[in-house]
């Protein structure tokens, strides 16, 4: 049994026994490490390892990984990938199995769907970048930030395109400037299959990305932090498709940047459970303000 951290709880886990449930090809077991062919891709020369003891017990890596979500992580993320479960589901299962007393009995759901191929998305005809929005500027989203995200608007509405990581236009959000009414492009890709600003992440390659509920909050991070980039999921919960998109981001650190209320706290907790084994994590500190944009405009 080895001692590992799961959701800030210290737990003794039988790492070797858990790994023994799987077939490992070209495997070499020692007391300290398992070295084997990658379980996530075709691998003729063993390039995958799991530490079996010590301070880094359960930490794993795949030096030839083709998918950043399956390149390295902790023991929870490894089992989640092997089983096809979410990170949070796997963490709860381990806590229940190895004696954490407060976890309720779980009913485990089936394997998560894989991401749909890109050609299943509804790709819209591309649009010219809209004019700079005076409304967005009044919210602290400068002309430069608007150009970075390809947003803008006119006297009646703000226009905020949602794109794939490759920059293909998949939906558009329109927001009235005189009240909080908004709507999306009809017949487009559902928002819960996209992440606003993901194309900016892949284009700019920042070290850190802030994950928000709304687009204006996401863009606010460009002004809050030097080199800051934000993305948005469009609400206070994370879909399976959005989780997969976020897991693949080429970044080192994420900021949990949900709104400063109960729904935002719920999103932050979900993000921590789902993504915590893959990125460094820190929480946004809004100093009592409601969200990232409010924080920007009082500082």
UniProtKB/TrEMBL annotation:
Domain of life: Bacteria
GO molecular function: DNA binding; zinc ion binding
GO biological process: DNA replication
InterPro entries, alphabetized: DNA_primase_Znf_CHC2
A UniProt-annotated Pfam family: Toprim_2
Name under which the protein is recorded: Toprim domain-containing protein
């Amino acid at each position: 049994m080895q001692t590992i951290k799961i959701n800030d709880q210290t737990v003794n886990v039988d790492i070797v026994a858990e790994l023994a449930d799987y077939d490992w090809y070209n495997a070499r077991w020692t007391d300290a490490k398992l070295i084997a062919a990658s379980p996530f891709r075709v691998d003729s020369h063993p390039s995958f390892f799991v530490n079996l003891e010590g301070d880094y017990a359960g930490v794993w890596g795949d030096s030839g990984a083709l998918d950043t979500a399956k390149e390295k992580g902790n023991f929870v993320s490894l089992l989640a990938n092997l089983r096809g479960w979410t990170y949070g589901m796997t963490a709860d299962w381990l806590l229940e199995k190895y004696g954490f007393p407060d976890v309720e009995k779980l009913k485990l759901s089936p394997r998560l769907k894989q991401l749909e191929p890109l050609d299943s998305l509804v790709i819209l005809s591309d649009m010219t970048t809209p004019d700079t929005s005076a409304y967005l500027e009044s919210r602290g989203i400068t002309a430069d930030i608007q150009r970075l995200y390809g947003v803008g608007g006119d006297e009646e509405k703000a226009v905020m395109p949602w794109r794939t990581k490759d920059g293909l236009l998949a939906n558009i959000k329109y927001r009235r400037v005189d009240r909080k009414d908004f709507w999306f492009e009809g017949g487009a890709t559902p928002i819960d299959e996209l992440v606003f600003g993901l194309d900016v992440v892949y284009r700019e390659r920042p070290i850190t990305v802030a994950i928000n509920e709304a687009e204006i909050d996401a863009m606010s991070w460009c002004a809050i932090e030097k080199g800051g980039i934000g993305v948005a999921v469009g609400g206070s919960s994370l879909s399976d498709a959005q989780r997969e998109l976020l897991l693949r981001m080429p970044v080192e650190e994420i900021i949990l940047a949900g709104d400063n209320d109960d729904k935002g706290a719920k999103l932050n907790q979900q993000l921590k459970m789902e993504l915590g084994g893959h990125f460094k994590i820190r929480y946004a500190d809004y100093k009592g303000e409601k969200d990232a944009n409010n924080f920007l405009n009082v500082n």
